[in-house]
């Protein structure tokens, strides 16, 4: 990203694991150090300033997602928590179904499978069964389909979905659209309005280069009060901070999904990381990520590796998957690990 001072990785490390857990930029390391020292010497003396950083993070998320308002975004522990808000916030009827794919990370599968006792069927499309992955999803939709839940980029092979096409289909058929965007946000440009997403969930520790334990949940404003709340506490009320008020109501903003104390350490870290993305510009970040993916695919193919990631450039994001003919994957992994 131009400024290599932000990533002074050891000379014997070539880091290609952002799709799992990213290294932090130096500004993030320093932000965590400052926050820790402040806590150690002053405690919460500057808590009001911490709240300003929290709001800055919400504003950054709004920019990254092109959300209408920062009020549309909740700060959550992880993707699974956010998806659970959707699964257990919606009212289901026996016979309803959800359409997803057969390539999803467990976070975007188990939560929907857990609705089976309510009579909700999970339909998993074979993304290789039709001319396009989107057509494979659409083929499983019927009049009882309530939701399409899909990862923006498939974790195993790096397949980038055409989210705008799926969003248009959902809008036309009156189906809710939920996106696990953990492998997109921070790697490629993302626009919740353009794709007409109803719900978006993503952790911050991959391409957003933040710590584990903090992510985002976007909920389309028209749907906020349609989701039953499943967690309650002091932080999710409208009059937050007014501890003497006995009568309460849930916040009108997405803060209604944040039941308790915020992860202030994570907030300071992730705010610093995202500032680098926004300073660089997601258009440039995406161009660099795609160029690196293209180069990796080209070099791996030249080496005789079997590239699993789809060949079309429009299907690429930050993940490149391959296998080595005649090599055990575990042994290859260990060799790569040993060599940094």
Question: What is the gist of this entry?
Answer:
With 340 residues, this protein is of the alpha/beta class.
Tally of DSSP β-strands: 9
Contiguous low-pLDDT stretches (5 residues minimum) are none
- Our measurement of the CA-to-CA distance between the termini, rounded to an integer number of angstroms, reads 21 Å
Rg, rounded, reads: 21 Å
Structural class: alpha/beta
As a percent range, the share of helical residues equals 25-40%
Write the H/E string, N to C.
HHEHEHEHEHEHEEHHEEH
- The DSSP helix count reads 10
Description:
It is built from ten helices and nine strands. 38% of the residues are buried. The protein is α/β, with parallel strands linked by helices. The strands form two sheets. The protein has a seven-stranded mixed sheet, sandwiched between helices. It is globular, with a radius of gyration of 21 Å. α1 runs antiparallel to α8, α2 packs across α8 (264-280) and α3 packs parallel to α4 (107-113). The longest helix has 21 residues, at 282-302.
Write the layout of secondary structure elements.
Elements: H1 26-42, H2 47-65, E1 73-76, H3 79-87, E2 97-101, H4 107-113, E3 121-125, H5 133-138, E4 145-151, H6 163-173, E5 176-180, H7 192-195, E6 199-203, E7 215-219, H8 264-280, H9 282-302, E8 306-307, E9 322-323, H10 329-338
Parallel strand pairs: 2-3, 2-4, 4-5, 5-6
Antiparallel strand pairs: 1-7, 6-7, 8-9
């Amino acid at each position: 990203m131009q400024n290599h001072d932000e990533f002074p990785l050891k000379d014997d490390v070539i880091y290609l694991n952002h799709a799992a857990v990213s290294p932090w930029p130096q500004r993030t390391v320093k932000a965590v150090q400052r926050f820790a020292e402040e806590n150690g010497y002053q405690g919460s003396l500057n808590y009001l300033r911490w709240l300003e950083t929290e709001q800055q993070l919400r504003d950054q998320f709004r920019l990254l997602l092109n959300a209408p308002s920062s009020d549309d975004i909740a700060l959550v522990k992880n993707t699974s928590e956010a998806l659970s808000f959707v699964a257990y916030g919606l009212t289901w009827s026996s016979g309803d179904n959800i359409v997803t794919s057969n390539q999803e990370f467990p976070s975007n599968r188990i939560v929907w499978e857990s609705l089976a006792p309510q009579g909700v069927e999970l339909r998993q499309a074979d993304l290789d069964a039709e001319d396009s992955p989107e057509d494979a999803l659409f083929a499983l939709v019927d009049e009882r389909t309530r939701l399409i839940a899909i990862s923006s980029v498939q974790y195993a092979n790096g397949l980038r979905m055409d989210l705008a096409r799926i969003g248009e289909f959902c809008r036309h058929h009156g189906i809710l659209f939920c996106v696990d965007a953990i492998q997109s946000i921070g790697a490629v440009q993302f626009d919740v309005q353009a794709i007409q997403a109803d719900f978006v969930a993503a952790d911050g520790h991959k391409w957003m280069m933040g710590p584990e334990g903090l992510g985002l949940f976007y909920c389309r404003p028209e749907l906020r009060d349609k989701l039953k709340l499943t967690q309650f506490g002091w932080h999710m009320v409208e009059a937050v901070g007014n501890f003497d008020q006995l009568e309460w109501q849930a916040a009108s903003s997405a803060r209604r999904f944040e039941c308790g104390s915020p992860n202030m350490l994570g907030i300071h870290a992730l705010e610093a990381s995202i500032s680098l993305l926004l300073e660089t510009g997601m258009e440039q970040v995406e161009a660099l990520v795609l160029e690196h993916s293209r180069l990796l695919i080209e070099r791996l193919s030249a080496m005789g590796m079997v590239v699993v990631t789809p060949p079309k450039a429009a299907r690429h994001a930050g993940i490149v998957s391959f296998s080595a003919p005649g090599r055990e994957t575990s042994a290859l992994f260990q060799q790569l690990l040993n060599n940094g």
